[in-house]
Amino acid sequence: MSHPPSLFRTFATVGSYTMLSRVAGFLRETLMATFIGAGAASDAFFVAFTIPNLFRSLFAEGAFSAGFVPIFAQTLERDGQEKAKQFADEAFAVLTVVLLIFSAVMMIAMPLVLYVMAPGFEHIPGQMERTTALARIAFPYLLFVSLTSLQSGVLNALGRFAVPAAAPVLLNITLITALLLGVGADGDRALFMSWGVFVAGVVQFVWLAADCRRVGVGFHLVRPHLTPEVKQLIARIVPVAYGAGIYQVNVVVNRIVASLVGVGAVSWINYADRVNQLPIGIFGTAIGVALLPLLARQIQSGQEAAALANQNRAIEISLLLTMPAAVGIAVLAEPITAVVFEHGRFTPGDRHAVASALLAFSFGLPAYVLNKALTPGFFGRHDTRTPVIASTVALVVNLTINIALMHKFGHVGIAIGTSVSAWLNAGLLSTILYRRGHLKPDDRLRRRLPRIVITSAAMGVGLWWGLGAVLRVFGPVFGMPGLGAGANGSRTLALILLIGGGGLIYLLSAFAVGAATRDDLGLLKRRRKGPIA
After folding, report:
1. From CA 251, how far away is CA 269, in angstroms rounded?
2. So where are the chain's domains?
3. From the CB of residue 327, how many other CB atoms can be counted at a distance below 10 Å?
4. Contact indicator for 118, 259 with CB cutoff of 8 Å
5. What is the rounded distance in angstroms from the CA atom of residue 249 to the CA atom of residue 228?
6. For residue range 16-25, what is the model confidence (pLDDT) as tens digits?
7. For a pLDDT cut of 90, what percent of the chain falls above it?
8. Which end is more exposed in the chain, N or C (fewer Cβ atoms within 10 Å of the end residue's Cβ)?
């Protein structure tokens, strides 16, 4: 039977691999900023990559996992491994046919798709044609990454989390390689990156296929049949898809509006979002992977009290990690942007534009991870409708704020709308869970939440003072007073000192006021036998 330490342990395991992936993605974006900059070429690539990435997030990740894993696990438990493998093969066959047809239609209709995705490109000479060519190259990535998601579902159901969690690292390594090849060949770097997306999908598929074979679940090509299990899978995927992919939907909305702001706006939003995605990806992914199967089993077995306790712990650990991250990013938005992106073709003007968007994005960071901690409370009780409604409301609010603010605040207004909609979504989900009796904050959660806020604020004050001290000692290393940024080594050292000092302040104050205890660290170190829950 699962117990609370398994939640923390799985969180740490998946979070570690996700962190590695995000760091690799960070390196990828840094190199792109250096060798491509923020202009028409980067705008074209980001939009081209967004299209398959949107459908990946809508169907291949959260929705597919929520639909496939429970059916596969149930079949495995009830009918044995052979029947489970048969179901996996049937799902693989149907998914392959559907994706091949869908990919062909999308590639043919790509010019029409781009008129919806980036209407502003029509007014930039040659931009629509360039983006269409890049998008057609990158779109087949959806086929391979969706099949990879099926393989991940099989491995997760068998208690294997490490290899699927490590797969996104391969995407970033492949894209970095493609970019460097483009630089070395002095070719169209955005074109090389688009081919890199295609190759990355193949590499990820082969990577997971090898691990599936190691556990005796190699996939075989069979004639597609809509068996009862496959029909059940489709029925579960459709309602979850929209809610699970709401973040990517918001990203697409942001880029549609950003394309109307002007040249560079799409790239500024993308670079700022990349920084914001580092903690969201690490903590949100880990919480989602760890919590959903645990809550589902506890609820189905009648352990409602244990499920409520784990829901509280998920909220607690989400805020314990994301509140200081949000404060740190807000205070250090300009230094972070200078160190990570301000190289090569990335100008001081780009730095300020990205930092402004990053500041606005940071306020929504805790809300996005909270949503990951709250939605399992619905999915675990077979309610896929409520999160979809909440996500729809948040999406409409995001679009409304984007349009209202874009003329006055430009791309920063887009980031503001994103943060507001994230908090609205979290507020709706938590309120509904509370009214249904599925969220009951215990004494520990009520005691720790204000202490987390206090320690995060203390860290923010310390960082603000430290930033002033660094500027006095090192000079304008981040270019903040309006001067050119300092040497890479100086500003990198300065940022490391600031982050390290802020982390130390938060850690010490958290233990001092009781926002965290030594027992929390012990939970992360504790191992148990058998598959991780």
Report:
1. 9
2. 40-244
3. 26
4. yes
5. 30
6. 888 888 888 8
7. 33
8. N
Task: Give me 236's structure tokens.
Answer: 């579960």
Cα–Cα separations (whole angstroms), residue 18 to 148, 175, 521: 16, 17, 19
Number of DSSP helices (H) and strands (E) in the chain, helices first: 23, 0
Residue 4's pLDDT band, with cuts at 50, 70 and 90, is very low
Residue 343 region by backbone torsions, left for phi larger than 0, else alpha for psi between -120 and 50, else beta: beta
Instruction: Give the pLDDT mean for 370-383.
Output: 83
User: In percent, how much of the chain has pLDDT > 70?
Assistant: 86
Specify the DSSP element, H or E, that contains 508.
helix 488-513
**Token pair 């903040």: residue:** 480
Global confidence as pTM: 0.72
Query: Do 121 and 165 contact (CB within 8 A), yes or no?
Result: no
Count of positions (residues) in the chain: 533
* Token pair of 324 as six digits: 């200081």
201 phi/psi in degrees, rounded to 5: -60, -40
Q: Residue 3 — very low, low, confident or very high, per pLDDT cuts 50/70/90?
A: very low
Lowest mean pLDDT among 48-57, 112-121, 225-234, 521-530: 521-530
Q: Among the residues of 280-410, which ranges form H helices? A: 285-300, 304-331, 333-341, 348-362, 365-374, 376-379, 385-409
- Cβ atoms of residues 76 and 218 within 8 Å: no
